[in-house]
Every structure is written in structure tokens, then in C-alpha cells.
# Entry
Amino acid sequence: MKKKIVTILISVMVLFAIQIVLGTNQTRAEVVTGESNGVKWEIDYDAGKATFSGKGELTSKWKKELSEENRGKIKNVVIEEGIISIGDYAFDECSNLTSVKIPDGVTKIGDYAFDECSNLTSVKIPDSVTTIGNYAFGYCKNLKSIEIPDSVTKLGQYAFRWCGSLKSIEIPDSITEIREGTFCDCSGLTSIEIPDEVTSIGGHAFSGCSGLTSIEIPDNVDYIGSSTFGDCSSLTSIEIPDNVEGIGQYAFSGCSGLTSIEIPDSVEYIDTGAFHNCSGLTSIKIPKSVTRISSFTFHLCSGLTSIEIPDSVTRIDEYAFQSCDNLKNVVIPESVTEIGTDIFENCKNVTISCKKGSVAYDYAKENDISIEEIDGTENKENKENKGSNTLFIILVIVAVAILIIGIIVVIMVSKKNKI
# Structure
């Protein structure tokens, strides 16, 4: 009997010891530590916290031994002073990360550093940071606020792409270039102020910012890149400064809220599809500095009813006005010597105003398009100016006549009084 009791007690003690050992190992397994190039880390899975200390660049090496599941456990990141750079891909795909503390002394946030941190809601960037890399905060779809300090001189390509929860962002005066796609697809962005120091805005910079209602382009900008404002469907007004020389491919494509736009005389070329699918556009004046209407420039601009092409234009490319359903009149001057394929395809009610014998006249005849003959020596604008001048001359003559009659009446009354 005693032997059985002893055996049971020993078994219980062994099981208890095993449980203690297993429990200890499990607890230890929930805290992971490591070191690379002078940077130490401690990851507490139970607390969902990762702490980094030491000196140098915080690289992505700490993640390489972690499974995707374990990366998903990290919710808070604390970077202690001494770290001078957050390297490329350092925290990318940490999908449950909600907060990060970046200390003073960090000068660079690398490419893809926080890319796809979809639950990150806010970030405070210290004044020491000078560079924010490409896609640094890309696809941070719940990022609601971020403050970019004046120390930052470079914003990388697509740095804030798909940050759909951002409502507003202030670009510091230290930025002189907005690179390709920097704020692409920030659909929640309603306003943004571009500093006067900016001289270049890259392609797709604000593409897909469907909540943006207005934007002012600084006077120093000389080119609007490809799809820069593409699909900014809520944009109702935009002023192009006099310094702009070119408008890139599909620059305003899909800006269905735009009703009118004034292109300054400084613009020399308008590239393919620049105003493609601007369905709300009802009027636009092409300056005399433009020599070519590129293909698809006004494709699907269903709100346009008339347009006058200046006599500086020598060429109209294919499909330039395709599917402008309500286009009724287009004035094409004699200067146009090349016309591409199907420029008025699906424009069923269009009439071309042109001079008989011109390339436009022959094109209309060949494509069974209605023609309104005009005097080739003067276009509609000249006629209007001539009419205005004539009216002015008539008014001057009438005024002079009234003045003369008044003088005569005064003299006659004066003589009568003397008698």
C-alpha cells in the first residue's frame, strides 16, 4: 500500500515538474530577442509590443525569422533614441500595427518601411527626418493623420498611396518636388495646399483623389505630368498658372466635376487624352500657343457643345473628339492640314465650320459630316471682334452728333437771349 502511495506521489511530482518546465518554456517563447549591426530588439508577443534599441540603422532583419502569424501579433512599436534610420521594408506587412514611436535623431524612413501596415492610424515624424522613401506609408488604409515636419526635403514616389482615410495633409515649404504617385488614390483627401516652392509635380501625383474638390498649382510649376489629377472626380475648379508649358497624357482624365478650365497662353502642347472623360466640361478655350490637338484629348467629353480651334493648330490626331455626344459645332481653321482617323466618331450632331477647299472641308465631305462654310480670312472670334468694333464706332458717332447738336442749341439760345 505504501509503495502505491509513493508511486502516485512520485508520478504527481514528475507531472508537476514537467508542467512547470513546459510553462516556463512557453513563457519564454512569448518573448523573442535579437541583435543585428548594433541594433537590439525585444518582441513581447503577449503584450503585442516590439522594442528596438541601440545605434545605427533598424533593418528588416528582425522579421526574417518570424512567421507571418507572429508579425501579425505586433501592435505597438517603440524605437528608442540612438536609432538613426528606419531601413527599407523594416515594418512592411505588419498588418495589425496600430502605433509607432519614432525618436528624435532618425533622419530617414526607407522605402516600403511601413507599407501595408493597414491598421496604423497615426504617425508623428520627428523634426530630424529629412527623407521619406518610396511607398514608405503605401496602403496604410486606416492612416488618418500624419504631420510632415519642415526638415523633410524629399517625399518618395507613391509614399502615401492608398492612404484612403487621410482627410488632409500639409506639405512643408521644404519640399520642392512632388514625385510620381506621392498621394495617388488618397480617396478621402478633400484639401491639400501645395507650397509655392514646388517646381515639379510628377505623374499620378494626385491620381484617384476622388474627394479632392479644389487645388491650386504653384506659379513655379512648368509641367503637369501624366495622369497627375486623373480620376479626381470631385474636382470642380483648377487654375493652371501662366508658367505651365505642357499638359501630360491623361492629366485631367476622369475629372467629371470640372465644368470649365482656362488654359494659359504659355501652354504649347496638350498630350494624349489630357481631358479624356471630363463629362462635366461645358467650355474650354484652347490658346493660340497650341499647335496640335492630340489623340483622345476630348474623348467622352459629353458636356461639350462647341469648341473653336485656333489658327495656330496644324494637326488634329485620331479620336480627338470621339464620343462627345452633345458636340454640335467645331470651328476648324484653314491652318489645320492634318486630320486623323475618326476624330468625330459617335458625334452624331456635329457641324464643322470651315472654309471651302480646306482640309477640314474635304474631311467633312469624306466622312459625311455637316458643314457650315465660313470666310477663311476671319474666324468666329474675328467676326465677333469686328462686330464689337463696328458697334463701338457707331456709338462714338452718335455721341459726337449729340454733342454737336447740344453745342448748336446752346449757341442759338444764347443769341436769342441777346436779342
Notes: Confidence is low (pLDDT under 50) at residues 14-28, 376-383. Residues 312 and 333 are 9 Å apart (CA to CA). Residues 33-166 form a domain with the Leucine-rich repeat, LRR (right-handed beta-alpha superhelix) fold (CATH 3.80.10.10). The helical segments are 2-29, 68-71, 359-366, 380-418.
